[in-house]
Amino acid sequence: MAKKPAAEPSPVADFEQSLDQLEQLVGKMEHGDMSLEESLGAYERGVALYRRCQQALEEAELRVRLLTDPDAPAKAVPFPDAADPASGER
Question: Global pTM?
Answer without folding.
Answer: 0.64
